[in-house]
Give the backbone structure.
Amino acid sequence: MDEFALIRQNFAKAIINDSVALGIGDDCALLIPPAGKQLAVSMDTLVEGTHFPKGAPAKRIATRALATALSDLAAMGAEPLWFTLGLTLPNANQQWVGDFCDGLLEFADTHQCTLVGGDITRGPLTITVQVHGSITPGQALCRSGAQPDDIIYVTGSLGDGAAALAVLQQNITVRKAAQDYLVDRFYKPTPRIKEGRLLSTIAHAGIDISDGLYADLSHICQASGVGALIDVNRIPLSPYWGNKVSRDKALAWAISGGDDYELCVTVPRAQVATLETWIKSDRINATAIGKITHKPEIYMVNKGKTMAFDIEGYKHFE
């Protein structure tokens, strides 16, 4: 089966909506941007053996690929619209492609994000997803907006990505419920779209935690010309695995493990009461872990003492 047949048989069944004038099957898609909105565009690439284990199930790979890309839209407070897919395959395995497509389109439909085009080629298994979203002008959560005395919040729990990888690599053993939770967090992380849209109305700056809290918070600090003070004992850990490793290991995973796809935002003190009200009413799951400082350095403090650690986050090239 050639690439055109693969597209017709699998991807051409993507559901389109009124924002798509012309979808899959031509040289370009023709799209209708929402009136009065800015377009937010991001791209992520996943490579077998680097971003997911070799031999991972096709459906799992598909959801991971789209979820990690959508997380970038969440980080800016954008609403998903469309995405394109670049798929490099070692061979034209219809069963694999069919499973991949089913997982991809099901997850896309959940987040109301429409596949509008892409490309299939031959080579080592690689998935590239480009997502497009919309946002109200002036409301995007950029990395450069943090200000001294902002309170730093993170959504959800941190360290799940590193803990999941340890489970997948059989480096730690957990109960079945914990294993199911962690494997799902690895292959199907939840893009915090709703949280991003809500936080964009009150926060100064934001980023998604893909490379680790320290590394990603560093991007905010560098872009904003500020520093940060983090109380590591306030970092939220999942009860599923937190007691299965040492406290130091748990904190290291939470600080530098990466693959969590939660949001890290800085909130002005004038808006903290609003956010805390949302937290108490279960509109959002978020935790205050520190504050932005004038001095352009990041300090991780554990019971009043500065915490030292070696890994600052995932890097593709070193």
Remarks:
- Confidence is low (pLDDT under 50) at residues 313-318.
